[in-house]
Known about the structure:
globular, binds magnesium ion, nine-stranded mixed beta sheet, Glucose Oxidase, domain 1, 18 helices, binds phosphoenolpyruvate, TIM Barrel, alpha/beta
Amino acid sequence: MRNGVAGAAYRGRTASIGFAHGPFVRVDQLESAQRAAGSLVDEALALRSAIDTASQQIVDLAAIAGGEAAQILEFQVALLDDEDFMAVIFAAIGEGAAADAAWRSELDKQIADYGAAPDEYLRARSSDLADLRDRVIRALQGDQRATLGIPSGAIVCADDLPPSQFLEIDWSGGGGLALLQGSPTSHVAMLARARGVPMVVQLGTIPAAGATALLDGEGATLELDPCAEQIGSFETRREVHCKSRAAARAILRRPAASWRGERIKLFINIQRVEDLDHADAQYADGIGLMRTEFLLTNNGGLPDEETQFQAYDAVLRWAGQRPVTIRTFDAGGDKPVSGFTPGGEANPFLGVRGLRLCLARPEIFAVQLRALARAAVHGNLKVMFPMVTSADELEVGRKLFVQVVAELQANGVAAALPELGIMVEVPAAALAIPSFKASFFSIGSNDLAQYVLACDRSNGALAGLLDPLHPAVVELIKRTAEHGQRTGISVSLCGDMASDPRCTSTLLNCGLRELSVNPSTLAQIKQTVDGLSNGGNHG
Ligand code: PEP
Ligand code: MG
């Protein structure tokens, strides 16, 4: 700490909220010392053994990390198992290249391809590949270390940090992540949010090294070697943040939220059964959205009926009598799945995705509908279709569902047709809402905003324009909510707006009484509703 001279301050983008004060540690790029090429056989054996070492390290990490982290690492293991990919590298060794040069050259090509992808999700995968490249090179250099040796509580700074390195760091004593590049939608950002590690990305160039640092994940700043005044201001901000979180947590335990005397139901969004482990999940009124496409893995794995049934059944059992809304696969757009979504679309967000894709692939869709129909007998299940544009699509999907249930029952299998609703996320659906014979509606404000405002939701350059509070988006939300009030059909909203306290009063004023939020924001949204009821101004 310095007394008078303020330390350098840098601003980036928030990837995970929180505050950290600790030693500053730079994680530098791997030295690229070249190995001299041995005989063809020696080089091939050296690479094979390095791949085995790397593969084992990743499998061990995945076993410790579990859940979402394990799934992220699966991408790397799948690549190491891909014989076509490996054949190119071993062919280069066969032509006389050293093992490290052959490996690096092919991985660099793949990293460049992913790095140049127009889609931010795919671009973010290039750091997973860089991680894999460096892990195998380290093994080739005889470095068997599985950890980076970073002290607990450190502010770790890197150009970008791959998920497996994030998992090797001990975050139990605090600390945070400051990336010069990186993206809030990367896998490492998802892990940081899930583990409550503050993270700021896109800090640009940081010329100076430092001894200590302050990382403010809310204001998206990094301050190096701070002076006493900077530390004082940081600690005040941290205290306000901690108090507001503690107050929100206390409110969570109180009875249901209400606004102007009306009950506001707060549900949660989940992607996998493990998300229910979140400490706050138990206080939700139910599940408002389960994004089942996250059951699909990118190595071509379409889960079979039993695997899907087990997942849906586990969620219903957890919920007891509370309603559970499961959305059928919404693959495509920013969620490509090999073996399922079509390749080569010029504009995947306007392409064959969501229900369009499921209706085009009935053999895959029927498996999911069978698993859902079997789970429906075990709880309060509601099923909804994503990306619905026309009333006909809903009817074709319903017909298939009815047929699947009849077949199961004819074979003596316990099955039921759950309530069937749709996502309202295509502007046409919001505008023509009375034409849909759905049992309920759930507004997908993420896609609704992207289509109304003509802004690709994964394009960071348009983040300023992609405002869900734009009057055109709010108008469509209002019309949908009013349709619900007129007809008595339930309308909720499950896009990210529901999890943003700045949007809460607008959504309630539009007439919505059901919101589905990320489990980590449940307390804050309940606190916001409570504050609005008490005359507070949150939006
Ligand atoms: C939405 O579009 O708002 C939504 C909830 O669905 P997703 O974010 O999965 O597209
Ligand atoms: Mg959507």
